[in-house]
């Protein structure tokens, strides 16, 4: 075997380079500066004249060329990017695209799985493969989506073992799942590249944002680790890693900062395929590829791998690979030099930038190095001697190269890690640098001792500004610098955070950007088109020859949240890996944001501010604006423009889409391009983007562009606004803050976060374990609906269906006695309540306008035309007051059976106002679950949409009853949810058994030695009998609470019972997740739970795609649907999870569609919960990803049609009902098939994409689906012994009295 291994050869250049490094290291040892080392870039300005210089806050001018009087900013001719290749193509793209382009060009095979923010790379390669794009070998990449990252890594390993050039893309939890196979791939010395958008890990909370926690968790697997610091580097280092892995046989993790680099759009120079081909045609790569293929598993030259070894040989084999790692550094240098040769851009594994005689140096890896570099330039221009040592190659670590790059003058070093290793003696990069310096100093006793400290920055994309880097340098200058510190937050608990910089305080607003950089911010609402329009604008600007950068920040909501687009452009290369701090141009696309958020906080004095508002004269605007904003405007003195963009959009036929209007205005006021040219380019891009939607849509957008500029109004800010005095807001009284942890959380955490000021919160306000109180969405009052429903009492038949279908619990029935209505607002009209036991009450349907999303589902669902959508402004005041009054009315939950459609809606929904999309099909199921069992629910929630709308800081939509009971909710991970839920169920049952035993012991004890009151004894006796009955047992459990509290001190056993009193309440454990979880990544665990026989319930919210990550295919995706990762349309049928579950014979299985049959789903949930073993409820959940052509308000009709055509069957399989010829465990709830499946499919874009692209293939697949639907329906009829389409009736619920078999 040994002889088959290819020992990588060094190229002459690589040897030369390593020699140079060693020489430089030696120079460093003897105290000379490493000037002669080729890759050391001294970026300090030669004369200081052109460098940014420190200016006192008072004389900060607006950056960029001053605006001429016509308010148009003009630009000088763009300068070429330093290090660029003459004639190279400059294209604005994000880091993911920059990387994916290279990965696609040089790989034949990829196995993918979605995870934010790496997903786009998988989507791109899938798309390109579907388009039959060829890579440099002339092949179309083979792209396969796997069921999980575990699977992707396994398949990758297999493809590599078969001699393929294979790659994949992942991060965070996905990367963690790859660890076992990463060891294998490295252990077998296999060339491979894994591209990682480095992201935070799920610990006290999940975060999709960027840091190095994930990559640092795989640093021990034997993969080389190469880090890109910018979008351009992501492109270049991607190629370096693919080259270096071939050269070295060591697999590479190529990583860059998730979201920051992966999603930052920047103008980069693209390496063309011809250059890549030329490189790969070099003998060294041809040999390496040949060698890789020759080692493949092949029966014509067989070998075995992966055998077992014992103590005698394992160790030696492991050490045998050392020389590959020893050589890898040189190969990276050689590959970098080759990339330099084709691009003109110089790279080194360690790059020093700064003063050649720097006294203080920061060592850092990733995009943060660019912020440090800006700080270094700023400080050196102000007389300091500082530098930054950028680390690109973290593994294999090359101590000599680090020493070579470090200026000998550096007496103080700070290593910044973008990760946190709790309990360690320092983070990994710090430890590595310390070890290197220590070993060197021990080996060279006469050498200078360096003072080294370490700190953390930028976790989960926390902003890291040049100002923070300056603070780090200032710390280094202290006599005793702080160690193990954090920067960028306020740690008022363990006091480890650095104070704000004195030299470059953030508040001073000093820009360290290249001169002439123009900065813009656009505040928009999620899905209003602002982000898309800005992406287009940046392309137009970039393609016109300017350097451009764009970054988009979002709040926690899935839709209707705030988006802020941060755009920069100018003549010089822009790095700045942080948000815009001082905007030259601010657009506020939603009028309400002016009052709600501090949108003006980051505007440069004298900058341009454009507001989309219905108040287009300054007087009316003045009446609307709060004093604080008017004062701010007066102080900032911006050039203020107002435009009623909504009116322009409406007049142009674009409805509420104001993005094109605001874009045109931007081009007019920014002056980035001559306006005629800008408009021509804008129209061209519109034509390209909307062509597919037809000429009318193109014309409407063009019309909006034409009408925009004339609708713009220049407003003069009245001098009187400057004289306004604003009183400080009184803080809440301490007593209220301390009233409960919930209110404390709301006041101290939720409210600042909702005002987008979470960055300012100190450590002390958070619970360190990440636990949060329920019920915080009640204070959000997002007011995102343009239209809200109002109730037409005269038409209402009191069915409660509107409330049943509402995804946000924003419409509810009220029942009140005449007396209770005495204080009602005059507009709170009611009708006599209908139904047994309700005759003394009045009935009303009430909407909360501030919580409604305007989805229109309720108005569509109402069978009686008793709801009408009206503009929110017309009813906001009255209906808000009515809602507030309705919430004070007593709950009337015991008047009707709650397991009915109407009765369920008289129960308080214990999830409300979640951030799910308008019309979401998932939330109504969970809302119903909380109405049926909410006060005893425990939910184990898989990661997915339901975990995001179920709990994204600070919005916690699960809430409690007045007594404080409500769903206890937890998300562990995506992949382990079934097992996590099973653990909760088993753990709870075990603890309750112990409690029951304790109760029985107490009851059996001699009353003389253990005296209890008769009331406590009799209640305990009753509970001990009924403890498994959730109704009676829990009622007794509640009654026991005060009794135990009163008597707890009378005996130790009573104290034990008192301490366990929360278990008197029987819980209902539900394992909830989406189809991606249930059908794919979590299926192994789910199957195990199905087979467990435990009393546990599973709810699958089947949107037929991975909705949360943007709509990738799962095994629940139906045939022919086009989803992400199935760009060519899915060619396999949907997996039948119900059939799999039913095959166990003892699992309760229901297939439901809430919108299609309200009664059936209510019944199914009640039965499932009662069933004494495992239950599985499959829920058809319409989702925005389906692309329903008439919008989500049609989800009800669509769902009905899905059931009628057999696309989604309704059934319940209840093993408690024994087949006896009369009763059947399988109940088919669908009626006879009717309607046309093809018509259903024609309503949804996911099916129509293929129909447009390949109508023959689509037609064939639709036929196949239709046939399969009929075959399945016949099978169901057979199972139901012909008894289908029977009404939902109580009769078959023989199981009701069945006692749980476990517990
Ligand atoms: C191991 C791992 N891989 C990938 C992800 C990223 N991820 C989070 S949610 C999700 C999709 C969830 O889809 P689904 O289960 O269908 O639920 P939905 O969002 O549709 O409700 C993915 C891929 C993750 N969190 N963990
Ligand atoms: S419009 Fe939508 S969110 Fe508003 S009350 Fe109706 S169903 Fe609920
Ligand atoms: S399931 Fe679909 S509609 Fe619901 S929140 Fe997720 S993406 Fe939005």
UniProtKB/TrEMBL annotation:
Residues 787-816, 843-872 form the 4Fe-4S ferredoxin-type domain. It comes from the Eukaryota. One of its GO terms (molecular function) is pyruvate dehydrogenase (NADP+) activity. GO terms for biological process: electron transport chain; response to oxidative stress. Residues 46-71 are annotated as: Disordered. InterPro entries: 4Fe4S_Fe-S-bd, 4Fe4S_Fe_S_CS, PFOR_II, Pyruvate:ferred/Flavod_OxRd, Pyrv-flavodox_OxR_EKR_sf, Pyrv-flavodox_OxRtase_EKR, Pyrv/ketoisovalerate_OxRed_cat, Pyrv_Fd/Flavodoxin_OxRdtase_N. It catalyses: pyruvate + NADP(+) + CoA = acetyl-CoA + CO2 + NADPH. Its EC number is 1.2.1.51. This is pyruvate dehydrogenase (NADP(+)). The lineage of its organism: Eukaryota, Viridiplantae, Chlorophyta, core chlorophytes, Chlorophyceae.
């Amino acid at each position: 075997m040994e002889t088959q291994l290819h020992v990588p050869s060094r190229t002459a250049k690589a040897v030369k380079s390593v020699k140079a490094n060693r020489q430089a290291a030696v120079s460093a040892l003897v105290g000379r500066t490493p000037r002669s080392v080729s890759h050391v870039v001294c970026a300090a300005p030669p004369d200081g004249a052109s460098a940014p210089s420190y200016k006192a806050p008072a004389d900060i001018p607006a950056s960029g060329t001053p605006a001429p009087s016509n308010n148009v900013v003009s630009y000088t001719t763009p300068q070429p990017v330093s290090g660029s290749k003459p004639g190279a193509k400059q294209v604005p793209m994000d880091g993911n695209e920059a990387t994916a382009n290279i990965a696609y060009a040089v790989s034949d095979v990829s196995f993918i799985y979605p995870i934010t923010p790496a997903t786009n790379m998988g989507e791109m390669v899938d798309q390109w493969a579907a388009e039959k794009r060829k890579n440099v070998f002339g092949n179309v990449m083979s792209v396969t989506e796997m069921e999980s990252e575990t699977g992707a890594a396994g398949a990758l390993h297999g493809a590599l073992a078969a001699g393929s050039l294979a790659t994949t893309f992942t991060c965070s939890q996905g990367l963690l799942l790859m660890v076992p196979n990463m060891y294998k791939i490295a252990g077998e010395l296999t060339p491979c590249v894994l591209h990682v958008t480095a992201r935070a890990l799920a610990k006290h909370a999940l975060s999709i944002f960027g840091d190095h926690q994930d990559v640092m968790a795989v640093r021990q697997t034997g993969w080389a680790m190469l880090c890109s610091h910018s979008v351009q580097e992501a492109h270049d280092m991607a190629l370096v890693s693919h080259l270096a892995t071939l050269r070295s046989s060591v697999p590479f993790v190529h990583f860059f900062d998730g979201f920051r680099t992966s999603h930052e759009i920047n103008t980069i120079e693209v390496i063309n395929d011809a250059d890549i081909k030329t490189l790969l045609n070099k003998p060294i790569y041809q040999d390496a590829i040949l060698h890789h293929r020759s080692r493949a598993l092949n029966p014509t030259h067989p070998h075995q791998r992966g055998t077992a070894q014992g103590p005698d040989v394992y160790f030696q084999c492991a050490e045998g690979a050392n020389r590959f790692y020893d050589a890898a550094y040189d190969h990276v240098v050689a590959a970098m030099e080759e990339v330099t040769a084709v691009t003109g851009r110089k790279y080194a594994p360690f790059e020093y930038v700064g003063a050649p005689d720097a006294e203080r140096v920061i060592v850092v890896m990733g995009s943060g190095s660019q912020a440090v570099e800006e700080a270094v330039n700023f400080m050196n221009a102000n007389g300091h001697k500082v530098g930054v040592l950028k680390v690109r190659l973290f593994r294999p670590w090359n101590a000599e190269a680090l020493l070579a790059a470090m200026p000998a003058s550096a007496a103080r070093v700070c290593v910044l890690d973008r990760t946190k290793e709790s309990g360690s003696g320092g983070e990994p990069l710090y430890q590595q640098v310390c070890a290197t310096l220590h070993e060197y100093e021990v080996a060279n006793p006469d050498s200078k001792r360096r003072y080294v400290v370490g700190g953390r920055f930028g976790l989960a994309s926390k902003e890291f500004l040049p100002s923070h880097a300056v603070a780090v340098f200032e710390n280094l200058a202290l006599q005793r610098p702080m160690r193990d510190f954090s920067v960028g937050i306020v740690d008022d608990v363990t006091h480890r955070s650095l104070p704000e910089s004195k030299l470059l305080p953030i508040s001073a607003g000093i820009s360290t950007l290249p001169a002439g950089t123009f900065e813009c911010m656009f505040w928009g609402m999620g899905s209003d088109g602002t982000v898309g329009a800005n992406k287009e604008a940046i392309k137009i600007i970039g393609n016109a020859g300017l350097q451009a950068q764009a970054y988009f920040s979002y709040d926690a909501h899935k839709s209707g949240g705030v988006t802020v687009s941060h755009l920069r452009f100018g003549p010089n290369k822009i790095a700045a890996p942080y948000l815009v701090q001082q905007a030259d141009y601010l657009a506020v696309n939603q009028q309400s944001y002016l009052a709600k958020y501090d949108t003006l906080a980051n505007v440069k004095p004298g900058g341009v501010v454009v507001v989309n508002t219905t108040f287009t004269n300054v007087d009316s605007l003045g009446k609307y604006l709060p004093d604080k904003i008017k004062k701010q405007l007066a102080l900032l003195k911006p050039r203020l423009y107002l435009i009623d963009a909504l009116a322009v959009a409406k007049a142009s036929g674009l409805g509420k889409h104001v993005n094109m209007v605001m874009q045109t205005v931007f081009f007019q006021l920014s002056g980035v391009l001559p306006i005629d040219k800008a408009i021509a380019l804008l129209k061209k891009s519109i034509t390209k983007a909307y062509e597919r939607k037809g000429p009318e849509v193109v014309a409407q957008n063009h019309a909006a562009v034409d009408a925009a500029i004339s609708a713009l109004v220049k407003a003069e800010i009245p001098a009187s606004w400057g004289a306004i005095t604003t009183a400080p807001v009184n803080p809440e009284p301490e007593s209220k803050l301390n009233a409960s942890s919930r209110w404390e959380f709301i006041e101290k955490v939720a409210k600042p976060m909702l005002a987008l000021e979470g960055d300012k919160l100190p450590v002390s306000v958070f619970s360190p374990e990440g636990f949060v109180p329920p019920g915080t969405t009640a204070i959000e009052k997002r007011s995102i609906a343009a239209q809200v429903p109002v109730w037409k009492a005269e038409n209402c038949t009191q069915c409660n269906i509107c409330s049943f279908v509402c995804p946000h619990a924003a419409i509810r029935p009220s029942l009140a006695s005449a007396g209770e209505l005495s204080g009602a607002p005059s507009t709170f009209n009611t009708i006599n309540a209908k139904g047994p036991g309700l005759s003394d009450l009045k009935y009303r349907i009430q909407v909360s306008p501030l919580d409604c999303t305007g989805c229109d589902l309720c108005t569509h669902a109402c069978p009686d035309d008793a709801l009408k959508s009206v503009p929110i402004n017309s009813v906001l005041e009255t209906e808000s007051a009515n809602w507030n009054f309705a919430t004070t009315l007593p709950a009337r939950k015991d008047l009707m059976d709650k397991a009915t459609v109407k009765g369920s809606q008289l129960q308080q929904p214990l999830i409300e106002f979640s951030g799910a999309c308008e019309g979401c099909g998932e939330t109504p199921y969970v809302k119903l679950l909380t109405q049926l069992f909410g006060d005893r629910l425990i939910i184990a929630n898989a990661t997915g949409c339901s975990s995001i709308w179920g709990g994204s800081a600070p919005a916690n939509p699960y809430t409690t009853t007045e007594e404080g009971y409500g769903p206890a909710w937890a998300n562990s991970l995506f992949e382990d949810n079934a097992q996590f839920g099973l653990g909760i169920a088993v753990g709870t049952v075990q603890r309750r058994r112990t409690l029951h035993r304790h109760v029985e012991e107490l009851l059996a004890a001699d009353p003389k030695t253990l005296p209890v009151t008769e009331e406590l004894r009799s209640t305990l006796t009753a509970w001990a009998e009924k403890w498994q009955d959730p109704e009676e047992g829990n009622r007794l459990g509640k009654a026991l609470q005060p009794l135990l509290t009163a008597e707890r001190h009378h005996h130790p056993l009573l104290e034990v019972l008192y301490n366990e009193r929360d278990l008197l309440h029987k819980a209902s454990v539900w394992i909830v997740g989406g189809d991606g979880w249930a059908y794919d990544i979590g299926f192994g665990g789910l199957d195990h739970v199905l087979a467990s026989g435990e009393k546990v319930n599973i709810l699958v919210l089947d949107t037929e795609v991975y909705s949360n990550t943007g709509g990738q295919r799962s095994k629940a995706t139906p045939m022919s649907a086009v989803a992400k990762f199935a760009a060519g349309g899915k060619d396999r049928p949907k997996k039948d999870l119900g059939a799999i579950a039913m095959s166990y014979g003892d699992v309760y299985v229901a297939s439901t569609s809430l919108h299609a049959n309200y009664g059936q789903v209510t019944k199914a949930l009640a039965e499932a919960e009662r069933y004494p073993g495992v239950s599985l409820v499959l829920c058809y959940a319409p989702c925005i990803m389906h692309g329903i052509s008439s919008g989500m308000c049609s989800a009800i009709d669509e769902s009905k049609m899905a059931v009628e055509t057999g696309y989604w069957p309704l059934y319940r399989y209840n093993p408690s009902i024994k087949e006896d010829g009369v009763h059947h465990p399988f109940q088919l709830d669908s009626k006879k098939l009717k309607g046309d499946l093809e018509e259903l499919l024609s309503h949804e874009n996911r099916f129509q994409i293929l129909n447009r692209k390949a109508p023959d293939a689509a037609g064939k697949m639709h036929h196949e689906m239709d046939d399969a639907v009929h075959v399945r329906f016949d099978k169901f009829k057979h199972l139901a012994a012909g008894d289908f389409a029977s009404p939902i009736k109580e009769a078959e619920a023989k199981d009701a009295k069945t006692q749980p078999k476990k517990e």
